[in-house]
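2 proteins. here.
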Amino acid sequence: MDVLMPVPLPPLIRQAMAQHFTLHTLWNQADPDALIEQIAPRIKAIVTGVAILAEDHQYPITSSVMQRFPNLRLIANLG
């Protein structure tokens, strides 16, 4: 299952997610929108978290963000 992680959650969580899922990260991409365009149909879940747990990165999951992922089934928020 393909999972999107838009913000850098703690390393332990990243490692566990990468072991069990195809993990796509946004915060370290030169062109996050290009990556989203490429992977959007495959994303089933978005795993995110509050800024204090995500190295002060923020990526609000708004309705317009959700609409970009036609097969999205789950949004998990840490914090």
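next one coming up
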Amino acid sequence: MEEEGSMCIGMPCRVIARVGELGTVEYCGNSREINFALVPQAGNGEWVLVHAGLALQLIGEDEAEQLLALLEEFYAERD
């Protein structure tokens, strides 16, 4: 059961490894394996928006940094 006011969001992640449709991304010092079926052109070092273990779209580094700053601010206000 979700908390009232909770939401699911995509996370900006940097691609660190790819093997076919699978690969590894890094976000906030953590890494996780995801599926790249929707973004097959994503390469190492590029940024993708990830939700539920799936890369949804390529994003630029500037956009990724802005999203990470907004998320940091959001979570700091919740503490």
